[in-house]
Amino acid sequence: MATTRNAPDACTLLDADHKAVKKMFKDYDDLASSRAKSAEQKKLDLARQICQELTVHATIEEEIFYPALRAALKDTDLLAEAEVEHASAKDLIAQIEAMDTADEMFDAKVKVLGEYIDHHVKEERNEIFPKARAVRGLDLVTMREELQARKDALMAVEPA
Ligand SMILES: [Fe+2]
Ligand SMILES: [Fe+2]
Fold first, then answer.
1. Alpha carbon distance 145, 66 (integer Å)
2. What is the CA(69)–ligand 2 centre distance, in A?
């Protein structure tokens, strides 16, 4: 049991994404408080990268992780909430992608997206992942490979 629990699984991969994007939001925050001229281009690049990471992450959850859980769990309220949160995050992502850092709302939108993702990640980490790991017969270790393969494919086509 202990070895199974320790094997990297789908939740491990998804949570590594969560941590990576959290760090990107932190870097963005540092850039946003910088007065350096070069910060503007760096902010734009980083914001685009955050949007790409989150879009790919949401897609692999929606295509692979959530449907498997929907099929396995009796109570799917948490998944429904997660899907609504994805839709709202995507809306904000689309707004950021259509904007430039010259827009006075740019930093605010990135910041709110970060707060929003923080909240969503907490629910996945504290509520959804434990439920997924408790489902008997759900092979999350194999699912990790599926998620990774789909992520690699999406990263290859999405412009960086
Ligand atoms: Fe997630
Ligand atoms: Fe999610």
1. 15
2. 13
- Alpha-carbon distance 30 to 26, whole Å? 6
* pTM, to two decimals: 0.92
Ion ligand 2 residue ranges (Cβ < 5 Å) = 61
- Model confidence at 9: pLDDT above 60: yes
CA of 36 to the centre of ligand 2 (A): 34
Q: CATH code for 8-157?
A: 1.20.120.520
Q: What is the pLDDT of residues 99-154, one digit of tens each?
A: 999 899 999 999 999 999 999 999 999 999 999 999 999 999 999 999 999 999 99
CA of 73 to the centre of ligand 1 (A): 18
Hey, what are 124's tokens? 């996945």
